[in-house]
Hints:
45% of the residues lie in helices and 10% in strands. The two termini are 30 Å apart. Strand 2, helix 4 (69-79) and strand 3 form a beta-alpha-beta unit. The chain has helices at 3-9, 14-21, 50-63, 69-79, 97-109, 129-139, 145-157, 165-170, 178-184, 191-198, 204-212, 232-249, 268-276, 310-326; strands at residues 28-30, 65-66, 86-87, 89-92, 113-117, 216-219, 256-258, 282-285, 297-299, 301-302. Helix 2 packs across helix 14 (310-326). The chain binds zinc ion. Residues 92-93, 220, 224, 260 line the site of zinc ion.
Amino acid sequence: LNNLLLSxxxxxxxxxxxxxxxxxxxxxxxxxxxxxxxPHVAPLFGYRDIAGFKKDLELLCSRHRPISLEEFLAxxxxxxxxxxxxxxxxxxxxxxxxxxxxxxxxxxKGIPAVFFVISETLDNRALCFQQKIALLCHHSHFTxxxxxxxxxxxxxxxxxxxxxxxxxxxxxxxxxxxxxDSLAAFxxxxxxxxxxxxxxxxxxxxxxxxxxxxxxxxxHSVSHPRYSDLSLTDQLQQTKGxxxxxxxxxxxxxxxxxxxxTDRGVHxxxxxxxxxxxxxEATFGTTGPYCDSILFSFQRDSFEKxxxxxxxxxxxxxxxxxxxxxxGRRPIQRD
Length: 335
Ligand SMILES: [Zn+2]
């Protein structure tokens, strides 16, 4: 759907849109809310500024009731489906802005949320490979032509060919992330120092403070790989490693997990082991409006389109859901 169509959709009166979405429970997800150009994120994707985020909340609250993770899980356990006409807000990657920007806004409005964190980044012990890519892209604009040429050669030697350096950097997958550390020197970057000085992620104290204000914390893997690229053993290690560290560090009432990137291509066996061994109570993916054939696997909708007002985005989600409903609503099948 292009932006023009979306802006037209945004003009549909609220009751009509609300009836399109029906009684569903919305699961919006975000990564960041900030008025700043955050260099370790901005080159990768856009995000809402504070005013835009507040408008999203107004719209969501006018049509749905904000619920906590606790209520969400309890209702699914009782009735086999989430609460009606509700929304559960979620945020991935555990950036410090969750504590500094998002939590104060939500707390003032009485809106619960779940923050999913990457365990290797806790307390800013390390940068996730995605933040390394973003920083390299950002710094490429201030790097000498000779250093850029050396960086291009290094990438080419590792199999990342192509004219555009930014495109090449963004194509580096998790499995080859070591190349990013080798590139840092060309860009005058010290990733460890950046993590310590800029503190991009939540600290343990900030997480404890979020928990004490009633927010929920969930796992988002050890180091943010795409799960469909991993063996079953590695998928389990990434999930268990993260959840065990969170459980040891914080007293979590509930154990929930959001897949990095997407859960597309993740087989039923992974979910069976996860739920049988009680590693987690529920998992969250990013392919709303689809529903899942696995009871405690849920799909979320992105509300993170900085160029689209909340009304248009809501209209898009409403339309996608009705099309999906009309099509017979087949759940995601897992082999
Ligand atoms: Zn993520």
